[in-house]
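Methyltransferase-like protein 4: structure tokens wanted.
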Amino acid sequence: MLKSGGATAVSAGHESAPVNAVSATNDRSRGLPSLGLRVETPDCRRKTPLQKTRSAGDADERREWDACEMTALQDDDTAPCEGGGDSRRNGSTTASKSILFESLDKALVVIDIPRTLEESQVVPSQVPRRRIVSAEPPATPYSTPEPRHGVAYSSQASPSPAAQLAELMTTAAVQGALQDLASSYRGPFHFARFLEPQPPSIPGLPPHLPPTAEPLLGSIQELRGPFDASAPSFDLVVLDPPWPNRSARRRTDKYATVQNLHEMRRLLLHIPVATHLKPDGLVAIWITNKPSIHDFLVSPTGLFAAWGLEVVTEWTWLKITTSGEPLYDVESTWRKPWEKLVIAKRIGSKRPDSLKPKVVFAVPDVHSRKPNLRGLFQDILGQDFTGLEIFARNLTAGWWSWGDQVLHFQQAEHWSSIDDE
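Answer:
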């Protein structure tokens, strides 16, 4: 049910087909015909990711590549197209087709961000039938200016010793992960992307709604009551808060940022996390690289303590180029090539044995689009775990999503069906 302030209901159309048998299931909102049974896979494995990156005007070639990649998605014994790569050749076998490589200990993983979002539009046992419109993947690292010696923290309070230690540990972990990946995997580092922009959404046209998704469209303050009254308990709660950021305030396509961490604490404590987290559930929060934000979460009087949680581990999303280089210099003072996901559990609850530190390598996509985490948490929580994403910008099949931009990337302009090309 789509709830927007007044809790107006909108029915969701399914957009899925069973694995290994593309069915005649129609999309209610667009009337999509069947893809038919298995199509003959074109010989698309010889091209590199950059050769395969789509541009406007190559409709016939796009159809061939999409047929190739969708066939690979339907058959575990079919290697993904070049530009994908088969994780089974290096490291462990993986269930998610968005994973290009995973080390045997699962400490290193290379994923494709657009593919994680495409997979999130259907339940885990089904095959995605839409491609998401993406940005050109960066081919070379970005340069960033460095401060003069001794003024790195002139405009902000010096980080605490704990925050400084956390940054040093992350830097060391990233450097070690880069060395380990270089000795284990040579690429490719992303799938071919669909770059052709779609026409703007027609006013009144419903967004694409994944099966069994529960979007709550509205602010935390507006929908706290309806959520508390109707939401179940969740195995995983993911948050991507609008952290205070001067540059973000100038953007109109983002959640409104709060002015300071005091306001952020008040906003986040308004979310009933403790009452809707299962006894052995996990909470995962995306954070920026500002040291005060790490302290805000994990200090003895921080947010996690207020929620009755304790840190279990941290994952690091390392942003890379198409050749696997860090997007920024790892040693840069002003800008780091990573974002961190801090994962916590209830104080005193059992720690999942398989939940360990992880470095996730991924080529970034359009602004504010993060990897969908469902596939990465399936090894830890099981295939059918229940999830809630707060401050979401897209929906996930089977999950609840809450925020005033939950439909941002669900609009028709962000998606293309193979049948439409």
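The two ends are 31 Å apart (CA to CA). The domain at 1-141+160-421 is CATH 3.40.50.150 (Rossmann fold).

Cheers.
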